[in-house]
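Aim 2, interim progress: modelling of the zinc ion-bound target.
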Amino acid sequence: MMTSRIGRVVAASAATAVATLGVTVANPAPASAAMTICYNTSQAGSFAGIAGQAASIWNNATTNLTLSANCGSNLRIYQITGGGSYAIRTSLGNGRVYIDTQQAQQYSPLRIMTHEIGHILGLPDNYNGNCSLLMSGGSAGTSCTNPYPSTTEANRVSNLFAGTRAAERAEGSGSAVFRDSWPAVAATVG
Ligand SMILES: [Zn+2]
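Predicted structure of the complex, ligand included:
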C-alpha cells in the first residue's frame, strides 16, 4: 500500500517534469502538411554542394515545404556539359534539374541552381531583366549573381504548397519543361 502510493507520487512528479520540459524545449509545431521534397545529388557532380545551398535558400524563404537531402528522389539534380541548364517538372515538387557546367562558368552557379529549382517549386520564367527576381534568370545578365527569390516569388511558392490558391496550384503543379533561361531572351519593355 505504502509502496504503491509512493510510486504514484513519483510517477506524477516525473510526468510534471516531462510536461514542464516539453513546454520549455519543444516549441509546439503547428499542425501542417508540409511537403518534404527529397533531392538527390548523386549525379550532381561538382554542383552537389551548391544544391545544398540552394535548398537552404528555399527552405529559409518559404513555408509549407522542406527540401531535404538523402531521403529520396522527388528531385534529381544532374551536372551536364553543354546544351543549357533546364528543369523538367513532372508535378509540383517533383522533377529533374540539369545544370550546364559551361553556363555555370558565365552565370552564378548558385543563381542557376535556385532558379531551376524554382521551376520545380511551381514558378514560371519571368525574363524582365530584374536582378532582384530569381526567375528573371539570364535576362538579368551575367553580372547578376542574386540567388534569392524575391518576397513575391517566395510567397507564391509557399501559397502553392499550402494549396490555398486553387488556380495557382493548378497552374504550378502541372508538368512542364523550362529551357533557355541562360541566356534568356530579353523581354520586350512595355
Ligand atoms: Zn527558367
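The longest helix spans residues 2-25. The pocket of zinc ion is lined by residues 115, 119, 125, 137, 178, 181 (CB under 6 Å).
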